[in-house]
Amino acid sequence: MLQLKECYFFDSLNSEEIKELESISKKVSYTKGSILFYEKEEAESLVLLIEGVVKIYKTDLKNNEVIMRRFRAPTLVAEMATFEEIPFPASASFETDGTVIMIDFKRFKERFMDKPGIAYSIIKSLSRKVKNLEEVIDLNIVLDTTARLAKYIYENEAILDELKNYQIAEDLHMTPETLSRTLKKFSVLGLLEKGANGYEIKNIEGLRVLFE
Question: DSSP string covering 130-194, please?
């Protein structure tokens, strides 16, 4: 089984429809560091991430990765490119071992796109992507370094356990040194506490004050 029924995107489908969807889908497993797709590659499949963490990134003129977003299962990845039938606007690779379900989009469009439950799930997914973009703009243009990190931690309380410091710095487009200084500042203010395994939140509401 491809686990499609367990995914909320397709929970409105009946058993026969799920079987039909499975017939145009394939499950693919990846190891950490594997490329899911490259920028400018043709988007021919609907990509459903069901296990793992994927980072979306672009490469600058100096061949440095610029992290756009990280996605955790379950979620559709880069579905806008697939719907618009344009090449992927960025590259994607796995930061953990992971699994995706590749769905033949041409056949999916012919058979399932007119179903209200599917359409609603897709609208919700695209809405979340718009919200993600708004967050990126807010974090990287509107807020200063202190407010940016405070908001990031406040809205993602588990992030200090889930990501390494360099990954957090990548998400916030700041240097690791700047991140380290700001984390220490939060510790001095009593907002965070550094333990053997990294920082822990001590005053969540105090973080909120820094960005509101």
Answer: HHHHHHHHIIIIIS-HHHHHHHHHHH-TTHHHHS-HHHHHHHHT--HHHHHHHHHHHHHTTSEEE
| 183-192 per-position pLDDT tens digit | 999 998 999 9
Residue showing tokens 């029924």: 5
| Domain shared by 149 and 124, yes or no | no
Question: In sequence order, what are the beta bridge partners of 37?
Answer: 92
Q: Based on the fold, state whether residues 78 and 169 are members of the same structural domain.
A: no
d(CA 99, CA 69): 18
**pLDDT, tens digit, for every residue of 36-45?**
999 999 999 9
| Residue 185, both tokens | 């500042």
Domain extent for 158: 143-211
Answer yes or no: pTM beyond 0.70.
no
Choosing from 129, 154, 180, the residue where a domain stops is 129
Q: Residue 60: how many CB atoms within 10 A of its CB?
A: 9
Alpha carbon distance 200, 131 (integer Å): 27
Residue 206 lies in a domain: yes
Q: Output DSSP code: residue 52.
A: S
